[in-house]
Design brief:
The protein is α+β, with helices and mostly antiparallel strands. It is built from eight helices and 13 strands.
Length: 221
């Protein structure tokens, strides 16, 4: 089982067989990662992922026997950080877990004296050191690890066309498929664009990729 594999690899894993068990464990624990089977007993894993995302940015890996791209798109649209199709090997699973944890920075501890790298654009403030985003009115906007990694890539390359290949380098390449970047961009637009249907900050460049079309200023604190 997944729990056994994680335990053998040195992780402390807690398992749940249904929705009630899952949310009971989430209330008791503050886990670094949720691995969610699309078919969790009689529950729909997509719906559970959506419920988790309403209150938490905890990384989510989804497991499924479905191989269609549409299912993977749904998983990413709901905020999953990775999507693994069955059957999979133990080495692949552990590699994906390690990758997602590394990208989420949830295992990182900052030194008290560490300077924080902050990007400022259109009134927004993004603390790349603490991986936090604040709106122009000062509200914190919660992003998934994939969304934050994509935003960081744009902030470090403003007003420069970035192709999908280079953007994939900043998120999980193992989770990549034809539409993965497009889905992540769509989710990020919903977070930072005034009108996601007519985006001004993240613009598509036909046949190439995307451009973050605004100036970015940097500060340290």
């Amino acid at each position: 089982t997944v729990g056994f594999l994680l335990g053998e690899a040195g992780y402390r894993a807690v398992t749940a067989l249904n929705k009630e068990g899952l949310f009971r464990e989430l209330e008791k624990e503050s886990p670094d990662l949720v691995i969610l089977d699309v078919m969790l007993g009689e529950e729909n894993g997509f719906e559970l992922a959506m419920q988790i995302r309403k209150t938490s940015s905890i990384p989510i890996i989804m497991l499924t026997g479905r191989r269609t791209e549409s299912d993977r798109v749904v998983g990413l649209e709901l905020g999953a950080d990775d999507y693994i199709t069955k059957p999979y090997g133990s080495a692949e699973l552990l590699a994906r877990v390690k990758s997602v944890l590394r990208r989420s920075k949830m295992t990182r501890t900052d030194a008290p004296t560490e300077k924080r790298e902050v990007a400022i654009f259109e009134g927004w403030k993004c603390d790349l050191t603490g991986r936090k985003l604040f709106s122009p009115i000062g509200d914190e906007v919660v992003l998934t690890s994939g969304e934050f990694s994509l935003l960081a890539a744009f902030l470090r390359n403003p007003e420069r066309v970035m192709n999908r290949e280079s953007l994939l380098d900043h998120i999980s390449r193992k989770a990549a498929f034809d539409r993965s970047i497009d889905v992540q961009v769509m989710r990020l637009r919903r977070r930072i664009e005034t009108d996601p249907g007519s985006p001004r900050l993240i613009q598509a460049v036909r046949g190439v990729g995307y451009i973050f079309s605004t100036k970015v200023e940097w500060s340290e604190s």
